[in-house]
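Q: Could you predict the 3D structure of UDP-glucuronosyltransferase?
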Amino acid sequence: MASPIQLMSVSALIFVLCLPTAQTGRILVIPVDGSHWINIKILMMELIKQSHELTVLVPSNSLYIDQSSEDFHIEIVPVTDSHALTRDQFEEFALNWIISNAFPKDPSTFSLAWDFIKTIKTGTSVVSLLSNLFENKDLMERLGTAGFDLVLADPYTVGGVMLSNYLKLPLVFFGRWMPSEDIHFAIAPSPLSYVPVINSRVTDRMTFSERMKNVLLYTLYLVSTRFFVYPKYDELSKRYLGTDLTVLEMYQRADIYLMKVDFVFEFPRPTMPNVVYIGGFQCQASKPLAQEFQEFMDSSEQGVVIFSLGTILKTLPLNIAREIAAGLAQLPERVIWRYTGEQPDTLGNNTKTVNWLPQNDLLGHPNTKAFLAHGGENGVYEAIYNGVPIVGIPIFGDQYENLLRLKAKGAAVMLESLMNVSSRDIVNAVRLVIDDPSYRDAMRNLSKLHRDTPIPPLDAAVFWTEFAMRHGGAGHLKATGNNLPWYQYYLLDVILALVLTVSVCLYLVWRVLKAIIRRTCCPRRSRKNKRD
Ligand SMILES: *[C@@H]1O[C@H](CO)[C@@H](O)[C@H](O)[C@H]1NC(C)=O
Ligand SMILES: *[C@@H]1O[C@H](CO)[C@@H](O)[C@H](O)[C@H]1NC(C)=O
Ligand SMILES: *[C@@H]1O[C@H](CO)[C@@H](O)[C@H](O)[C@H]1NC(C)=O
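A: Sure. Here are the predicted structure tokens for UDP-glucuronosyltransferase:
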């Protein structure tokens, strides 16, 4: 005789087996190296939890992307790259690059734009990677017959759009940046009167000269990328995809755009029905701290300042580190600083340097008073989530723009340049955000708004990815506007026709009036002539 308990567990098992199995899908993931990978992996792990099967395309020379995994399949794309670097070499190279390129105190807009364009141009090395991929007949055959339901891609490189076009699969983008610009500019109306372009350093309230700058900058990006960057990709897509669609048009035809943006943070702007905002998807309730951190945090009477400059910049030139350490030493608060370089002699006894820190968990601790940060996307959202005001030191990329948005909302103070930072600047800025409660209040307000959402952003990302698989895309959400020729999109043909019609009418009216005037006036004139 089976005991009641055994019977119960057997029936429970039967019950579980009889539940309708959730539909699982096969997803091909095209990631981008570095912090982009860390982000997309969060979504991937969530999709794996829902029992979808994931395959990731990994270039053999990538630095941060996993080359083996228990959780997902990996297809290595062999790349012949004579300049391949190790991760340490890359980080050293990146440090040197950052040190020599970090935002100078008052850069001209033009020099920022030029640097941005140079970065985009180096990005076109993706062309050789893609040729390697499409020439690899075995691999392409395997991908073609694997029965994928969907391509999930980071839009920062063109691999995703090209592969989804080649494999004729629905495409879900995860990210905000195309090689050239914020994808919004390619798919949604983006009035330059209040939507700032990257590196413009302006907010959504622009003066006349700021609007001028925004327009000129956008024109510069448009011309340089449309003439010098995208044609290289278009050549590839002609060769390997046999399509006349330009790569830009493929970007406009994705099914779902999962944008790492939240309007708590970004300035409101027009958008499209297939754009899903998932800013802050990486944030989680803080977990208990390791003992080393817990004791330090709990026993700090004046509170703690958390200081990190991101994944790549773990160290600094010694003269800058000395200056910063001297500033931190003057604070009554304690400081946890992620720093692996040589210990500066000015380091105070209130400052703890660590090789790594559990950033989100530390920001969630009630004793945390301020976050000294470079303004990278992850850190910014973690600070918003936890309601901790920021002292920002922007270094490169979109960091200045990120911090500018928080500053405009009264939730951050910005130090203009890492290179010229003095201990005094550090002390003043930290004192300001801690002693003036408006910064903390503003950030707490943002935090409340950010968390007050019907569906957490990561769940939304999973839902819309599955949605695209269930329905073979999201064609009903794609606006036709993006398939129109530009003269139709801007109604230039209609405007021209209207102008012509009005001109013809005016001309006719003028002719009629002239005729009437001649009839009524000219006889008089001729009588006058006769009298003469
Ligand atoms: C830390 O340094 C300050 C002055 O620099 C000193 O007053 C204080 O006693 C020191 N604290 C500890 C725990 O050593
Ligand atoms: C900023 O620092 C750089 C190099 O460290 C120096 O050449 C420059 O003169 C400094 N600028 C100012 C305004 O202090
Ligand atoms: C925060 O929100 C409250 C109302 O919810 C408002 O009264 C207060 O002014 C806001 N504080 C800041 C600094 O924006």
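Q: Anything worth pointing out?
A: Residues 22-281+456-476 form a domain with the Rossmann fold fold (CATH 3.40.50.2000).
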